[in-house]
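The data are quoted verbatim for completeness:
=====
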Amino acid sequence: MIGLLTGQVVETSEAGCILDVQGVGYLLSCSRKTLDRLTAGDGVQRVLVETHLRQDAITLYGFADAAEREAFRALIEVKTVGPQKALLVLSGLAPTALARAIAGKERKRLAEVKGLGAATANRIIDEPAMQKWAVGRATPEADGAGTEASPATPPGDEGDAVSALINLGWKRPEAAAAVARVRTRLGAEAPLGTLIRDSLKELAPR
């Protein structure tokens, strides 16, 4: 079973990417948020992997961090929510935002995830195991903020951008400050990928 791959992203699509690991290309299915993180960084990327075996196929699902992989594992345990729908959910909501939506029974918010629908959203929220999963994960600290004093993790895409920069090796305070500057400059409509790329430019040595 494959649990971790380290290599370079050589190709992406709406469904995932190909990661070149020492000359072998692994096809990974990923959420949009993971793809944005992987393509925002240059060079070697570290990807957590969930391996699913079936009689007719071996499918690899890639995740930029452990929180997203845990959310994926919880989601696929819900009846009628398979891996592809789980990735749809995680493309629309980061794990902490998903936990908040479930804990707060925000049915409309979850139903608005592209491709999900109200029936599946209700099933996720009403699933006791998902409610249990959400406990303790519905706060910004659940993203792994650590104990050092730092600005609060911003909501939505800003929080995802900060997490991406931390995964690339930056400290939370400087990552949060860079993302805040970029958001102020570009405005509320700037997509996650642009936030990450411009924040990296902000952090680059001058």
Remarks:
- The two ends are 43 Å apart (CA to CA).
